[in-house]
Amino acid sequence: MGRRVTRQEFLLMSAGAGAGFVLAGCGGAPEDNPAVQQQAGAGSGEEYKGPKVDLSFWNGFTGGDGPYMRKLVEEFSSQHDNINVTMNTVVWASYYQKVPAAVSSGEGPDVGIMHIDTVATNAARAVILPLDDVAKALKLKESDFVPVVWNAGIYEGKRYGIPLDVHPFGDFYNKDVMKKGGLDPNEPPETKDDFMGALEQLKSEGVQGFWVPTVPPGSTWLFEAMLWQYGGDLYNEDVTKAAWNSDAGVDALTWLIDLIKNGYSPENVGDGADLVAFQNGNNAFYWSGIWNINPLRAAGVNYGAVPLPQIGSQKATWANSHNFVIMNKRGQDPNKIAASKVFINWISTHSAEWAKAGQVPARNSVRESSTFQDLEFQSNLAEQLPYVRFPPSVPGIGDVQLTALDPAVNEALLLKKDPKTALDESASQANQLLKENRQKYQA
Q1: Would 56 be classed as within a structural domain?
Q2: Cα dihedral sign for 50, 33, 94, 407?
Q3: Could you tell me if 339 and 53 are in contact, meaning their C-beta atoms sit under 8 angstroms apart?
Q4: Please, are residues 226 and 312 in contact by the beta-carbon 8 Å criterion?
Q5: What's the domain range around 150?
Q6: What is the pLDDT of residues 95-122, one digit of tens each?
Q7: How many domains does the chain have?
Q8: Rounded-to-integer distance, Cα 250 and Cα 271, Å
Q9: Is residue 371 part of a domain?
Q10: Assessment of whether the complete model's pTM goes beyond 0.85
Q11: For residues 142 and 162, is the Cβ–Cβ distance under 8 A?
């Protein structure tokens, strides 16, 4: 992520992931691509002995995370005489619109990064290649990763993503505000009782301790985290029906609304207002993504970062993941596939350096390294990996969330609709969209 996604960018990013479905042939069906046919003999991933190749690597790391990845890319190229990697960054919103068109024309990147909730859509559109042979060549398996992260890259029984990292939600707490409000700045709340007690104490000192965001995507991600904590889920098992209007969903959304109604949060917290308030010392707790670690440090905030408190019946948090993908370019060179394996493997094994950008490495061995363990906030938030949750790997799922769930959560948090009505209406709309997507993507 790298920086906070603006509302406009999020709208474009979500729409772009499923837009232009007519491009679904990109480089032709993956099984027709000669690069796929020759993957098995295209190198082990440990070294590349073929002719010199130039790899184009695209991603959306335009924020503070960009320099960290660029440094890794430059170091890789300096160590590999026959592989030169050129990195091109495009804001995520534009990235998901530009990549399919570029791949379709035979241009664009050889290797890219995609968020895990966009992989299935781009796999269904044949924008990206299956990577089972890549994973096999690199000797990667589920036990090398947290299972939910590894399995999220699979669509219709084939792997399309190699996970680089996980970026979960966490609890950022302002130590100065906690101390001013009569709380121990070294004891952030871990349970619902702890959290509500802290908010009540802050309220008695005139501080609204937790500003509930009302604008997507932050508001939706927060609702999803609470939905999972209350024991619910977004969809039924085969993702044919929305399930967020369950009792768990209503309870989760009601809890958030009650924070507003009871004065622990202002009403109508606008886009980014919760972050600004946290930086300015106007609230004590800011629940958001791990990518905020460096920006908050740069802003001079005296803060800590720990897992979300357990509000519901179980621990859970929202997360996403950056995955490596290889493009289904027309006329893709098998030598580039072989070189891409080496590049992906090298970056993955050096991802402790990437973690410094505000990420949790997906690879178990990297998280166990002293380099990563020395990153206090990143290692704190990595404790949530056993219970991080993602949206399902289904084509067009981003459009469903954008069109149906986002407005429902927004209207409920703005106190315009009661939670049950908002979630019921949006679930009905989502069910129709899911049906249309199954036809659209022939799933």
Answers
A1: yes
A2: negative
A3: yes
A4: yes
A5: 7-164+321-349
A6: 999 999 999 998 889 999 999 999 999 9
A7: 2
A8: 23
A9: no
A10: yes
A11: no
